[in-house]
Amino acid sequence: MTSTEHFKYLLIGGGVVGAAAAAGIREIDPEGSIGMISADVDEPYARPALSKKLWVDHSFTLADTVLGTSKLKNTVVHLEEKVVKLAREKHLVETDTGEIYGYDKLLLATGNTPNRLPGPESDLAIALRSKDDYRKILAFSQPGNHVLVVGSSYIASEIAAGLAQNKVQVTLVVDTDRLFQKSFPAELSQQYHDKYQAEGIEILTGVLADKYEITDDQVQLTLADGRTLNGDGLVMGIGSKPNIDFAQDAGLEMADRGILTNEQFVTSDPDIWAMGDIATYPDQIMGQQRLEHVRHAEIGGRVAGQNMAGAGRVYTWTPYFYSWVYDISWEGLGVLDASQKMYRETLAESGGETIYYFDEEEHLDGILVWNTAHDLDHFRNILRKKPTIAELNSALTLTEIS
Q: Angle CA(277)–CA(21)–CA(255) in degrees, nearest 5?
């Protein structure tokens, strides 16, 4: 293998992590050559808008999501190329187009591939991940059309709400009895569920989708119980899997379905960093974990880029999850598992509430903040201390959730 191009810093993946890493490199090294290889057809962009803001704020467009990576000095972005082989000893990567690139320092930020139901490839059946996916969904989501959405994920629930707010008839298929049943207390889960139904979304509960077919510009979805649904389009939000095959083949150390890194995102190879959906790293509060979240990608990606350029920074920020639909907003830290012991703190001034989740040993394991403005660092500090139920109850007025 002989490289056709060589970069001081080579970034594999054109998502938020790659864009943040490029910016982080430039903060430390204003001149060193940066190359980016992306399987996407679009340059790096802010992905959360695809299921959120683009559907509810029509003054916000796809152009507003562009992150401007290619405008950085001495930076080259190669689109529609997928890395298929990593030769660590030679510091080379090979893509599916046959191109070979050399590097001094390498970042792996290849993200996830969304899961799909069995069925033919079609522009009418989309597992939302990219701008191109958004364009295809938009094409079959005209007012009055009927779109089927499958999944209990954040993306599935957000896209269902976004479509409904654009006068699209929506049927949402979930495998639980209520939306977010596995994460939220029953009362809040029911509140979420009732709001969706009040906004005209049909929800089919407790059933799995089995497969789909395309006939005469229509999607026919077959459920596991034998029922069939017809629609003008299908959106799948049924999880994803990390893109780590070539890294595994290259012998990098793995953990929790991801590439194992230290607190600076360095892998078992000192010239290779990994960050984002594919990286298993030691969180300062929660311990070793692999996390899929945009703010983690933004902040951690920047740290990874700075470290590629020699900064030696330790990643100390514990990420959070969030969503907002209609008049409901929430943010979560740590583990949100409704099978755990849960306690409620009612916030009289705002009308919101905080839910505290405790593990089997009755130590704090997660925090859900519901419909209220707050300082997340305050809750990070609480979670960092891992108080017991008794210890936290001595400082706050908590009510057990049965």
A: 30
